[in-house]
Amino acid sequence: MTKPASVRVTVYVAVDPAAAFEVFTAEIDEWYRRGPHNFFDPVRAVAIRFEPGVGGRLLEVYGEGKPREMARVEVWEPGIRLLLRDSRDTEIDVTFEASGDETKVTLEHRGLERLPTAEAESHARFGGRLLIAWFSEYMRERTSA
Amino acid sequence: MDHTFAALADPTRRQVVELLRDGPRRASEIADALGMSRPAMSRHLRVLRTKGLVDVETATADARERLYQLRPDTFVALQAWLDQLQAYWSEQLGSFKKHAEATRRGRQAR
Fold it and tell me: Is A131 within 8 Å of B18 when comparing Cβ atoms?
C-alpha cells in the first residue's frame, strides 16, 4: 500500500558517457564531498572507493581496520548504467546518456519507502542517507491542487 | 521529527496516513478500510494523534462522528527532510560534474 518513494537529480557533464562513468566510479574519492554527514564514520573515514564490476562494493575506507561496505554493485555497464543497492535495501540508479557533446547523468535514489522507520530515524543525522517517503508525492499533490 | 518517525514505524499507521491523504475519515471508516477492529484502530489513532500526525475535527458532539485528518505541518517537515536528501545528491553530482570537466576536458584538449 505504501507508495514507492524516490528522489532524482540530473546533471549535464561536458564529457562523453564513458569518461563520465569512469570519473563517477574510479575517481569517486576525488569528487565525493566530505562533510560531517557524508560518511558513516566521518571521524575515521579516509577515503571512499568502488570495487569495479557486478558484486563489487562501495567502500568507506579507514586508516586502519576493515573498510565498511556501504553498497553493492548490481549493474555495472561502463558508459551506460550503474546500479547500487545499499545495506538498507534502497537503490541508487545512475544512468549515463549522450546528449549532444555532453552526458546527461541521472541519479535516482529509490526504495526509500523500504527504509524501516527506525533506520530512517537513526540516519537522520547523516545528510545523505536519510529519507522516508511517499510524502514527496503527497506534497506535490497538495501544492499542485 | 523523532516523534513522527516513531509513529510511522508501524505499517498499520502508515496505511492510515495513506488513507487520510484522500481526505478526512471517521474512525469506523478507517477501521473498516483496513480490516481492523475498532478498538485496535482506536489505539493506532491515538498514537498518530499524540505524535502530531493527525488531528480530530470536533465539529460534532457525537464522538463516533469525529473526523480524523492529516496535519499538514507535520508533512511539511517530512517533505523538508526528503528535500534534504535531494539537496545532498545535487551537491554530490555538482561536485562530480566539476571534477569530470576539470580533469577530462583538459585531457581531451591536449
Answer: no
- What residues contact B110, with CB distance under 8 A and at least 6 apart? none
CATH number for the domain whose boundaries are A6-144? 3.30.530.20
Are B11 and B33 members of one domain?
yes
Indicate the number of domains in chain B: 2
Assign B65 a pLDDT band (cuts: 50, 70, 90): confident
Chain-chain contact of B2 with A107 (C-beta, under 8 angstroms): no
The answer to whether A31 contacts chain B (CB < 8 Å) is yes
| Predicted confidence (pLDDT) per residue in B9-48, tens digit | 677 887 888 788 778 999 999 999 999 999 999 999 999 9
Residues B91 and B65 in one domain: no
Judged by a CB distance cut-off of 8 A, whether residue A61 touches chain B is: no
Residues B109 and B66 in one domain: no
* Residue A126 in contact with partner chain B when CB distance is under 8 A: no
Domain limits for position B90: 72-110
* Residue pLDDT, tens place only, A81-97: 999 998 778 899 999 99
Q: What is the ipTM of this complex?
A: 0.79
Which residue in B6, B94, B99 is closest to A30 by CB distance? B99
Task: Examine the domain organization and report whether B87 and B106 are in the same domain.
Answer: yes
